[in-house]
Amino acid sequence: MSPDEFDRLVGAAYARIPARFRKRMKNIALLVEPEPSAHQLARGHVPRGSTLLGLYEGRPLTARSVFDSFTLPDRITIFQGPHERLARDPEHLVRLVEDTVWHEVAHYFGLDEARVRAAERRRRGRDGGT
User: Fold this and answer.
1) pLDDT tens profile 5-57
2) Residue 50: Cβ within 10 Å count
3) Predicted pLDDT at 61
4) d(CA 76, CA 65)
5) Among candidates 113, 120, 84, which has minimal Cα distance to 99?
6) According to the per-residue pLDDT averaged within each range, which of 13-22, 103-112, 117-126 is highest?
7) C-alpha distances in angstroms, 31 versus 75, 79, 80, 87, 127?
8) Where are the domains of the chain?
9) How far apart are CA 98 and CA 124, in angstroms?
10) Can you spell out the DSSP letters for the chain?
11) Distance (Å, rounded) from C-alpha 100 to C-alpha 79?
12) Are 104 and 113 in contact (CB under 8 A)?
């Protein structure tokens, strides 16, 4: 898949985040990179031989104050290569990208990894388990 096509998948996945959440997302950059860097893998505490699908870097919304103005944007990075390698087919790729964008947005809103995983299980149950 070309980088432009993957960018469109990420954009569509972001558009599926409910508007009430997107409206609260301020000063955040949504980026697409081919692969995670060694620094990003280390920052994400990824074991050797594993990879990242996405990474949230910033200060979660729940940890901010009025004194946080004029800060650099938070970043959500989605990695194309790992998604393509994990996807079984084009439909699965779409779902993986949607799940990753949702996961990283949840971190922006202050959910730690355990709470994100629990919310993902609830979300999958509502979506029919796909």
Assistant:
1) 999 999 999 999 989 988 888 888 999 999 999 999 988 788 888 899 999 88
2) 10
3) 66
4) 20
5) 120
6) 13-22
7) 7, 9, 10, 20, 26
8) 3-62+71-126
9) 12
10) --HHHHHHHHHHHHHTS-HHHHTT--SEEEEEESS--HHHHHHTTPPTT---SEEEES--GGG--GGGTTPPPEEEEEEHHHHHHH-SSHHHHHHHHHHHHHHHHHHHTT--HHHHHHHHHHHHHHTT--
11) 9
12) no
Helices 90-108/3-15 angle, 10° precision = 60
Written as six digits, the tokens of 96 are 């993986």
Topology of the domain covering 3-62+71-126:
Zincin-like (3.30.2010)
In which residue are the tokens 């388990």 written?
129
Residue with tokens 């954009």, as numbered in its chain: 11
